[in-house]
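User: Second chain of the day. Same drill as before.
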Amino acid sequence: MTERYKYSNDGYLNEDFRLFHLKDSSGQEKDFHFHEFDKLVILISGKVDYTVEGTTYKLEPWDILLVRHHMIHKAAIDLSVPYERIIIYLDSAYVERFAPNAGLMDCFAEAERRGYCLMRPDENAIAGLKDALGRLEATQDDELFGAQLLRGTMLVQLLVLANRIMLSDKSHADTVADSGGKIAPALSYINENLTNELNIDDMAALCYLSRYHFMRLFKAQTGCTVHNYIRQKRLVLAARLIREGMSASAAAAECGFVDYSAFHRAFTKTFRVSPGRIKKQ
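Assistant: Same format as last time:
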């Protein structure tokens, strides 16, 4: 893949949610990528470092990682030991329809607000987590009466537990993650100002770095250049605006794309669907 389109939209979710229970010793290290859905990662065993938006988390067994849609992330896996994990893809719209106004996805929003995607449950919470995951996993092959309702109910129970863990979790106060180092202020600034002009010299100054060192460190932390990171985030924002009813041309202009044909090509390359078609999805 060329540098211009470094990040990929990886994985698809055609169901309301999808659970994977994976165990292997030959998993591949994926390049930096993002999803159109939210993702829960629960490590059961193994050694893996997850980098999410420039922050690297060293996962321990039964850690919970909350990766919100469009967050750029990558797993670095130690293949010398078996790697077992449960991954759940979530359609937030489905969760809201199933339990309106329940706030079940608030744990994802809180993780993003904190700038820290990891939760480290205590022993009591781990016992509850194992039980909730076991109940949910047991429904996956159920085809009897009410199976879909039962699966949704088990998912709700898991998300209630995740939110309770989030409310009491203090792991964000610990020093268990490399929190993006000196580029963290720039990452926050970019994500808060995607519709405004963004200047590399201003971002470097926010991080108290020279332009040269800022650009080198940014690529080391995120896997891509500053320009391409901003471009990707603006494409993601444009996709959301289009889904919300804005015309593709207006969304392109709002997100800083002057040349619509270049925007159309980049959008289609990233999302594997044109701006016009994504509006209908």
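The mean pLDDT is 88.

User: Great, on to the next one.
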